[in-house]
Structures are given as structure tokens and as C-alpha cells.
Specification:
By secondary structure, this protein is an alpha/beta fold. The protein folds into 2 domains: 2-95, no CATH class; 107-295, no CATH class. Helices cover 50% and strands 16% of the residues. The protein is built from 11 helices and 9 strands. The strands form 2 sheets. Strands 1-9-8-2-5-3-4 form a 7-stranded mixed sheet, with helices on both faces. The protein has a two-stranded antiparallel sheet with strand order 6-7. α2 (36-50) packs across α4, α3 (56-67) packs across α4 and α10 packs across α11 (274-291). The longest helix is centred in the N-terminal third of the chain and has 30 residues, at 2-31. This is KDO2-lipid IV(A) lauroyltransferase.
Length: 309
């Protein structure tokens, strides 16, 4: 009897995940009917209406209160609504991703996308060596590996698949066609990244995700656990590390930035200091978020507080 109940529960869960995925795919497919700007703007307005009605909105409010205690409740709510709109835009932009990246080195500033640090892209492409590019969940971070591929610079990207297996499969296939090599985040992912660096290639990682077994660090003055993977790989291979980010501009435009090499701290033995590096990564992402707070995904449980609210 117990086994039968378990099978029914699993079947219902599977059906629910499938239904959610089909609804999401149907919505995104419907957006293709409209021009990109109209579809993206509609998704923004829709999520500003839907987001505050979800349980995640409360988590978002707590995150913003902890990160910006100096701001008023009205200011934080304005950031929250804009962040929901940003998430709507991010979803809609998946549909038009191929058309969004239209950067032309011969005509910079004329398309939707402008790129800062082109010379760095070209140097990494033309002078192959192991390197790591890191970013955070700011604006449309998916455009960064697309930009790299457009410049002929292919990196192995570490990503966390969505919890819904049907959505995860679709997203993986979509990303693989546009971004090159992908490594789903799991127990053996570090070995795949290490092999890429060992072969003289580059890897890309998001460094602002929750990691329960990570190092004790600070983010916006509050304790968080940070994944030590980037720091350990950099120490093992003595490879260069570069910060990169996407900034959403008015008019559904974007600026992609790859910054100068990130000089990592070292300990008394001359080795890269893993703990100090983890904190430096948080500091860099925090600086980005403070500059454009509405463009970060505040609904993430970065501080692992969901269970306490």
C-alpha cells in the first residue's frame, strides 16, 4: 500500500512539473508572435503584477531589508518590483536571444548590444591560455557566453540546471546551441572544469549562488556560504581570472563588460588564498549589485534564510 501511495505521489509530482513546463513553453512560444520589444516590455509588466503575489516576494523583501537597511521601505519595494520586471525580461529575452546579440565591431554603438573590453576578448582568443571568467546573476548574464562565442572565444560554462527536469532539458539544449560547452553543476563538475583548464582552455562560472558547504564569508554585511571552486581552480592552475558582467540599458539594450585581470590575494606561502579570494568575489558582485540593484535576482535565497521566514 505504501509503495502504491509513493508511486501516485511521484506520478502527480511528475505531472505537475510537466504541466508547469508546458505552460512556460506555451507562454514563451506565444511571445514569438510579437516584436521583440513589445514582448519583452509585456513580460516586464506581467511579472511586476504577478511577482508580488508569490511567496518569493516576501523572501525578496527580507533580502532587500538586510542588504539595504539604510533605504526606506518604499525604496526597497521599488527595487523589488523592478527586479520582478527584470526577471520577466530575462525569460522573454530567451525567445529572442539570437537576435538580441547584434554587436558589430565595425559599427559599435549602433545595435542593441555594446561591448566594453573587446581587446580583452581578442587577447584571450588569439593568445590561448587557461583562464576563468566569473559573473553574477545581473541583467541578462546569458549574453556573456553568447558574446564570447560570437568573438570565437568558447568557454566551458558551469551552470545550475532548473529544478524542473522538463525545463532543465529545454534550457540545456538551448544554451548548448549558443554557448558552446556546458557543465551542469553536480559532484563531478569540478573535474570537468579542471580538465578544460589543464588543456589550456577557459571556463565561466557564476559566483553568487548559495552553496551550503561553502566558505564562511560576508555579502552585504551578512554571513553567507561561498563556493571555493573558482579559488581552488585558480590556485591549482595559476590561471588568470577576469570579472565580466551584463548591464541592462534603457530601450532594451545591453552593455557587456569584461574587466581587467582580477589579481587574487596570496598567503604567506605565495599560494592563492582561497578564503580571501572567496570574499573578494563577493565584494565584486556586491559592488555590481549596489550600482544596479534592480538588475539582480533578489528572489534567490542567497543568505539561506527561506526556512526562517
Amino acid at each position: 500500500m505504501r509503495m502504491l501511495v509513493t508511486r501516485i505521489v511521484l506520478a502527480l509530482r511528475k505531472f505537475y512539473q510537466w504541466s508547469v513546463a508546458q505552460a512556460a513553453f506555451g507562454f514563451l512560444t506565444a511571445l514569438k508572435i510579437f516584436p521583440a520589444d513589445s514582448a519583452i516590455n509585456f513580460a516586464d509588466r506581467l511579472m511586476r503584477w504577478v511577482g508580488p503575489k508569490t511567496k518569493r516576494h516576501r523572501l525578496m523583501q527580507v533580502n532587500l531589508r538586510n542588504a539595504f537597511p539604510e533605504k526606506s521601505e518604499a525604496e526597497r519595494e521599488e527595487i523589488a518590483l523592478a527586479s520582478w520586471g527584470h526577471m520577466g525580461r530575462l525569460a522573454a529575452e530567451y525567445v529572442f536571444l539570437d537576435r538580441l546579440f547584434d554587436f558589430d565591431p565595425e559599427k559599435p554603438g549602433e545595435g542593441r548590444v555594446e561591448v566594453s573590453g573587446v581587446e580583452q576578448f581578442l587577447d584571450l582568443r588569439d593568445n590561448p591560455r587557461p583562464f576563468i571568467v566569473f559573473t553574477g546573476h545581473t541583467a541578462n548574464f546569458e549574453l556573456l557566453p553568447v558574446a564570447g562565442a560570437a568573438f570565437g572565444l568558447y568557454v566551458t560554462v558551469l551552470f545550475r540546471p532548473p529544478n524542473n527536469p522538463y525545463i532543465a532539458e529545454k534550457v540545456f539544449d538551448f544554451r548548448r546551441k549558443r554557448m558552446g560547452k556546458l557543465v551542469p553543476s553536480h559532484a563531478g563538475s569540478s573535474f570537468a572544469l579542471a580538465r578544460q583548464l589543464e588543456q589550456g582552455g577557459g571556463v565561466g562560472v557564476l559566483v553568487d549562488q548559495k552553496f551550503k558547504k561553502g566558505l564562511e564569508t560576508q555579502f552585504f554585511g551578512n554571513p553567507v556560504r561561498t563556493n571555493p571552486l573558482l579559488a581552488k581552480l585558480a590556485r591549482q592552475f595559476e590561471c588568470e581570472v577576469y570579472p565580466a558582467r551584463c548591464i541592462r540599458l534603457p530601450g532594451n539594450r545591453f552593455r557587456l563588460e569584461i574587466e581587467p585581470q582580477f589579481i587574487l590575494p596570496r598567503n604567506d606561502k605565495g599560494q592563492i588564498d582561497v578564503n580571501a579570494t572567496a570574499q573578494m568575489l563577493n565584494n565584486k558582485v556586491e559592488a555590481w549589485v549596489r550600482e544596479y540593484p534592480e538588475q539582480w535576482l533578489w528572489y534567490h535565497d542567497r543568505w539561506d534564510i527561506k526556512r526562517s521566514i
